[in-house]
């Protein structure tokens, strides 16, 4: 019987050190001793303390299972809990990324036009895949885009994402939108339009790209009114036709009474940028959402001539209603616990089969990897682990899965059987070392092995005693805190952590001169 070989994975991962710590739990770097890969193992504790947190975790692990793409962060494994009924922590294994785009922008003042192009291409390629699945990310910003020293980007943090189902109009309306204001589309400032479309993500990508070009946020608004002022200062006042379709009466009056502003030529605002890049940026930052291109249309822009190819830009099958049935009604913590357990089983095929056949047991009689990791994580925390101070549970914020950003790390020795790549000089946090790298394997299909997508069992019909789960709206205090945090970053950069010693960065020609670039 292969029971222990499949599920006794307590010895598969060799824990290295604590690389992050916060209200959600602890993140440790580790080595997958089966593959030699570097991974980040994240312990998310007390997952069911807040129903909204649990729902966000469920949403994210489900979406990251369904959205398998080179430019989206990958969950490699989720540890099976010792008990189906009583677990409260989960351990998620992610691919380990070096930093995030916020750090890259902050630490690099010499990014080339090739870097600009390659960064935008990857973001749009991921967005095309996400949108063809009928998913809106809704919280795109530099900190939610992970990066490696070889210029590889991956979108993460799908905790605020939503799925627009096939039986609904192409545009939908949500009342719980709480994303960061600086990257928020105009239609989300004061609920301008009655319905939202994938264009909200396109606007965010435009803001991020502008920040890549200049090194500073494009619209760092202090409040909604200031945000609109900054937008119209650059783009000019919107047309009467656009204003007439705004559903918020106060916003309509404000824009109508605003003095006439003429748009600023992007060549003046971004004097060092590629003119072709600015033409595309103007399309991405159209005030009216109907004037913005789709991700697929943006990829066809002349700016990507010689780089973009349809076979490297796969689409995704739309996600079905059954996968997100829990979003459409009230659920309890027990409902969400059962659904999270069901998602964990996707990474344990034999137990998933037993579960689907109704033959699984509530408690599992084998050495639990979770018990092993709990001891290792506790030992690291007790011995310092180079981690920050724990945030009290009373201050816990409603967050999704923690990012796979390396806060600090010692160089991890390569696997003995693997080829030792060229060593690259150590960089400060977020520093891009070396030029853009090419794609590796040209293929039109998803390079990841697709996991079996078995449908979730339908939950019992909602009853009157089911408690509603809601999403807590951020207060203006949260926005002010974010603004102060980023302002402090810009005013004085103090690299408090070390960037990891990159062993895998491949030197090559910049993307503008690559021949036969291939899909990574």
What can you tell me about this protein's structure?
The protein is an alpha+beta fold and 520 residues long. 31% of the residues lie in helices and 9% in strands. It has a domain at 101-316 and 473-491: Transferase(Phosphotransferase), domain 1 (Orthogonal Bundle). The strands form 3 sheets. It has a 5-stranded antiparallel beta sheet with strand order 1-2-3-5-4, sandwiched between helices. It has a 3-stranded antiparallel beta sheet with strand order 6-8-9. Strands 7-10 form a two-stranded antiparallel sheet. A hairpin with a 2-residue loop joins β1 (13-22) and β2.
SSE arrangement:
Blueprint: H1 3-7, E1 13-22, E2 25-32, E3 38-44, H2 51-66, E4 75-78, E5 90-95, E6 99-100, H3 101-107, H4 113-132, E7 135-136, E8 145-147, E9 153-155, E10 162-163, H5 199-214, H6 224-235, H7 240-244, H8 249-257, H9 266-269, H10 275-284, H11 295-299, H12 333-345, H13 349-357, H14 369-382, H15 476-491
Antiparallel strand pairs: 1-2, 2-3, 3-5, 4-5, 6-8, 7-10, 8-9
Helix pairs in contact: 2-12, 4-5
Can you give keywords for this protein?
520 residues, nucleotide-binding, ATP-binding, serine/threonine-protein kinase, disordered N terminus, 15 helices, Transferase(Phosphotransferase), domain 1, ATP binding, kinase, three-stranded antiparallel beta sheet, alpha+beta
- Low-pLDDT segments: 1-7, 387-399, 405-427, 440-476, 485-520
Number of helices: 15
Order of helices and strands: HEEEHEEEHHEEEEHHHHHHHHHHH
Counted beta strands = 10
Specify the CATH homologous superfamily of the domain at 101-316 and 473-491.
Transferase(Phosphotransferase) domain 1
GO molecular function, one term: MAP kinase activity
Region (Disordered): 404-425
InterPro entries: Kinase-like_dom_sf, MAP_kinase_CS, MAPK, Prot_kinase_dom, Protein_kinase_ATP_BS
EC number: 2.7.11.24
């Amino acid at each position: 019987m292969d029971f222990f070989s499949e599920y006794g994975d307590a010895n598969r991962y060799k824990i290295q050190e604590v690389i992050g710590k916060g209200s959600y739990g602890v993140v440790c770097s580790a080595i997958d001793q089966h593959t030699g890969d570097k991974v980040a193992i994240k312990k998310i504790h007390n997952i069911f303390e807040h129903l909204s947190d649990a729902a966000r975790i469920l949403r994210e692990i489900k979406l990251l299972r369904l959205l398998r793409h080179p430019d989206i962060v990958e969950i490699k494994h989720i540890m099976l809990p010792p008990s189906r009924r009583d677990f409260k922590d989960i351990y998620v294994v992610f691919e380990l990324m070096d930093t995030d785009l916020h750090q890259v922008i902050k630490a690099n003042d010499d990014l080339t036009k090739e870097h600009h192009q390659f960064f935008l291409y990857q973001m749009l390629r991921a967005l095309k895949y996400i949108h063809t699945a009928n998913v809106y990310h809704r919280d795109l910003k530099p900190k939610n885009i992970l990066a490696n020293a070889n210029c590889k980007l991956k979108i993460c943090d799908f905790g605020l994402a939503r799925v627009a189902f096939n039986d609904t109009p192409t545009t939908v309306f949500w009342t719980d939108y709480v994303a960061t204001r600086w990257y928020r589309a105009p239609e989300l400032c004061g609920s301008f339009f009655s319905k939202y479309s994938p264009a909200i993500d396109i606007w965010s990508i435009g803001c991020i790209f502008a920040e890549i070009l200049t090194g500073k946020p494009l619209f760092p608004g202090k409040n909604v009114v200031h945000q609109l002022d900054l937008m119209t200062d650059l783009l000019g006042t919107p047309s009467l036709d656009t204003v007439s379709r705004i559903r918020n009466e106060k916003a309509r009056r404000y824009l109508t009474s605003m003095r006439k502003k003429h748009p600023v030529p992007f060549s003046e605002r971004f004097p060092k940028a590629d003119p072709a890049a600015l033409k595309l940026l103007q399309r991405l930052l159209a005030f009216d959402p109907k004037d913005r291109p789709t991700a697929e249309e943006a990829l066809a822009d002349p700016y990507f001539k010689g780089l973009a190819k349809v076979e490297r830009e796969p689409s995704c099958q739309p996600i079905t209603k059954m996968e997100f049935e829990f979003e459409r009604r009230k659920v309890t913590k027990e409902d969400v616990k059962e659904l999270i357990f069901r998602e964990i089983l996707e990474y344990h095929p034999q137990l998933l089969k037993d579960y689907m056949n109704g033959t699984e047991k509530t408690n599992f009689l084998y050495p639990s990897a979770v018990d092993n990791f709990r001891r290792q994580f506790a030992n690291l925390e007790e011995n310092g682990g180079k981690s920050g101070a724990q945030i009290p549970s009373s201050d816990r914020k409603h967050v999704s899965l923690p990012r796979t950003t390396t806060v600090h790390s010692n160089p991890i020795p390569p696997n003995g059987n693997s080829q030792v790549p060229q060593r690259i000089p150590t960089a400060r946090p977020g520093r891009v070392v070396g030029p853009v790298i090419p794609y590796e394997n040209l293929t039109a299909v998803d390079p990841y092995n697709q996991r079996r997508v078995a449908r979730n069992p339908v939950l019992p019909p909602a009853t009157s005693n089911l408690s509603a789960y809601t999403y807590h709206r951020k207060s203006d205090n949260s926005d002010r805190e974010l603004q102060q945090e980023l302002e402090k970053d810009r005013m004085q950069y103090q690299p408090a952590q070390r960037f990891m010693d990159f062993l895998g960065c491949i030197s090559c020609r910049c993307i503008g001169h690559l021949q036969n670039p291939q899909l990574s």
